[in-house]
Amino acid sequence: MQETMQQKDVTLEFKRYILEKSDDFSYEPMADLYRVNLLSMMLNRYEELLEQGVSPNQAVRETQRAFDDIAQRMRYEGFSTEKEKSLSENEAERYIRESSAKLHKRALGVCLLSACLMPLMITVGVSDIFWMMEEILVMTGMMGMFVMIGIGIYALCSAAEPKRKKEIREGRFTLSAKLRKKLEKMRELLSEKARRRRAKGIALCATCLLPIFLGAATGSYAGPFFGVAGMFAMIGAGVYQLVMAAGEKKPIDELLKD
Fold it and tell me: What number of other Cβ atoms are within 10 A of residue 69's Cβ?
């Protein structure tokens, strides 16, 4: 009889503990069912500790300590508080798409600014072949340079922030278990893609002098200018890959952060 009463007291203590830890999720319709599962797990843990020779009072404390993260567990399972909103799959995809568009514009802008001298170098090289049009070609190259600078600056300045950036970066949302697993798989794929981009970017920047050597080897006056143009093209492409690699999976990291 005394053992039965003690079991009831322990059950009531665990119930109070679960309600206190999950009070913020009280409006969730499925929260009660999850609390029942939590109570069952806590009682099983309590019984395991008793079988190991732990005193009842110590077993209660250790069980509560093991389940101190009830709020985090419920968020991980997709429950949300009144101040939070559950993020749908479409909303998560929209945030990733908008973040990727912003990153692409930034990478494109930096790429164009890094390679802006390429048109000038090409036209200077061509002017050696068509020397009668030298002034026109050089002016065309300068115009091309400023066009690339203008487009690059426009791309950087017009890169719009995602609409729900503040809400998501502050963590005022929850994810369902299904969506979380899907995002974790996407993060693995993007991590591999980012590694390949980083490798390409480093390789392009590290070998950017090769076109100059090839141009010089031709022995013509125009060759080195074409080589310099090739160097800027490789630098621009390398910088684009590096910028994309640095931010490719950042939106998913923001969605999955605890």
Answer: 11
Provide the mean pLDDT of the chain: 84
Query: Which tokens is 158 given?
Result: 């017009």
In terms of C-beta density within 10 A (0-12 exposed, 13-18 middle, 19 or more buried), how is residue 77 classed?
Answer: middle
Collapsing DSSP to helix, strand or coil, 115 comes out as coil
In the chain, which ranges are E strands? 85-87, 173-175
**DSSP letter, residue 85:** E
Give the H or E element holding residue 57: helix 56-66
H or E element, residue 53: none
Whole-number Cα distances in Å, 256 to 68, 97, 126: 21, 16, 53
User: What is the signed CA dihedral for 33, 34, 40, 43, rounded to 10 degrees?
Assistant: -130
**Per-residue pLDDT tens for 9-54?**
788 888 888 877 776 665 555 677 777 888 888 888 888 888 888 8
CB 79 within 8 A of CB 21: no
Residue 15 tokens, joined:
């119930």
Residue 157 to residue 55: CA distance in whole angstroms: 66
What tens digit of pLDDT does each residue of 222-245 get? Answer: 889 999 999 999 999 999 999 999
The sign of the dihedral angle between the CA atoms of 48, 53, 59, 63 is negative
pTM higher than the cut 0.85:
no
Report the alpha-carbon distance of residue 251 to residue 248 in Å, rounded.
8
Residues in the chain with pLDDT values less than 70: 1-7, 23-30, 78-86, 170-172, 258
Tally of residues, the chain: 258
Token digits of residue 256 = 């999955």
